[in-house]
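Regression test case RT-17, inverse folding.

Input:
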């Protein structure tokens, strides 16, 4: 049995399960004090748990719960987080022979709602949150006196900074393993999916001309070809996207229209 939340904070959840002889969850039940979303998330969670081993159930995230429900309004996402916490508490309690009480991990950041730095870090990381208001929607921290908002902001910056470093490391690692043909395909894919739609929205277009080592040759078309900001578009948008999603080593050169090079001008 796992119990989380408190009546004083507005919602609470008690989750129970029993295992069959093969170690799978045979049944799960809940009792909740809260709004319709708290009831709905608790209910779907019990359905999701059934038939799973404890190791499988432990992998259920708050995002899985919200998705299973067909989505939740962002202000109600804390209900899905409460479900995931109750599940963890119940598994912990079972493994501790029924005597282990759920203990908060980390240090309390939001005293109004008893939310710790570890819990805030986790909701930020797992749900890719970028604002204090989002954190409040996901775990209530910051939703009372507001005195903890500065600390929440620092946690968001730290977690997002780490995430950006991890993503950069993944791109560098993947780029090192790309064959030339894979690199060309990926460049074309990023141009088609991310760069071209943005340029087309402004009456322009782009074509991949060639990839030679780390040099990507492209031609701007339509409005982009005449735009006085073409060089900025090339470096700040096209090149930065390709560096971010293909390889940080890439650089982009524009293949000019021969007629323009022979005396035309940008206007
Ligand atoms: S300490 Fe977090 S809202 Fe009051």
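Golden output:
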């Amino acid at each position: 049995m796992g119990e989380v939340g408190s009546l004083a904070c507005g919602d609470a959840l008690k989750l129970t399960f029993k295992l069959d002889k093969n170690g799978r969850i045979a049944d799960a039940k809940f009792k909740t004090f809260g709004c319709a979303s708290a009831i709905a998330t608790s209910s779907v969670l019990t359905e999701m748990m059934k038939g799973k081993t404890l190791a499988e159930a432990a992998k259920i995230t708050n995002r899985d719960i919200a998705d299973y429900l067909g989505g939740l309004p962002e202000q109600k996402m804390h209900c899905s987080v409460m479900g995931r916490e109750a599940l963890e508490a119940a598994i912990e309690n079972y493994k501790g022979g029924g005597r282990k009480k759920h203990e908060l991990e980390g240090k309390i950041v939001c005293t109004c709602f008893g939310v710790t730095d570890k819990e805030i870090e986790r909701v930020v990381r797992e749900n890719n949150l970028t604002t204090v208001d989002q954190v409040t929607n996901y775990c209530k921290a910051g939703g009372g006196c507001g005195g903890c908002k500065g600390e929440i902001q620092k946690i968001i910056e730290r977690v997002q900074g780490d995430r950006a470093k991890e993503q950069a490391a993944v791109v560098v690692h993947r780029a090192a393993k790309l064959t030339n043909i894979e690199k060309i395909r990926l460049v074309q894919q990023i141009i088609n999916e991310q760069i071209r739609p943005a340029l087309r929205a402004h009456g322009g277009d782009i074509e991949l001309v060639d990839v030679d080592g780390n040099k990507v040759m492209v031609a701007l078309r339509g409005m982009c070809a005449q735009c006085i900001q073409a060089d900025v578009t090339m470096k700040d948008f096209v090149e930065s996207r390709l560096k971010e999603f293909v390889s940080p080593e890439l650089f982009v050169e524009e293949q000019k229209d021969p007629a323009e090079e022979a005396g035309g001008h940008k206007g």
